[in-house]
Sequence to fold (223 residues):
Amino acid sequence: MKIGIFDSGKGGTTIYRAIKKILPSEEYLYVADSKNCPYGEKTDEELMKIVTKIVDDLKEWGAEIIVIACNTATTRCIERLRKMYPELLFVGTEPAIKQAARSNHNRILVMATPGTIESERTKSLLAENKKNGQTIKLLACPGLADTIENGLDLDKKLDELLSKEKEYDAVVLGCTHYSLIKDEIQKFFPNAELVDGCEGVARQVEKLIKKIEPNGSKYNGGR
Ligand code: DGL
Fold:
């Protein structure tokens, strides 16, 4: 089974690694669209144009499953893509708000791109999962994905975004690029659990493959 994965650059490699760990024998195609980074600061129409081209390419190269290893493209485009390409199977990446809210955390910070924070999907994830007594703050981080992608001044950017943020029990990394700088983010929140969607996405892909190839020659049982 060919699995196509894309992101606006290297952020999605965190997702790719998590999938490859449990499904080592599948074939992977990875598109790192760094030319168009940051996705999180584009309009829906701009983003749709960009991701449609990538999906077309991945389809042409034989991908049957498309993993959107990007919270921004998932929260803003996945529904339209599913309608446009009924022949493909899409797995998306969403801010792991559900996972963070399920644990007994009272104060949760969600870091994501402006595009993800403003999306209707993030609003519904919050409404569906926030428990009584929980505080969940959504923090748009303009420029952070770009800083990570292009190796710009990370300390300065993190200081600008996070130095006033304190006292959280959990921090949701709602952009796949942020999972690449976990250690740096953790320094601002030494006692918080950092939560991302990588393993959840990998499990989703595993479930799909099991369904499609229950006795498939390539499927190795998941481990
Ligand atoms: N890594 C992506 C995400 O998860 C996109 C970041 C960007 O290009 O703005 O949202």
Q: What stands out?
A: The two ends are 16 Å apart (CA to CA). The first strand starts at residue 2 and ends at 7.
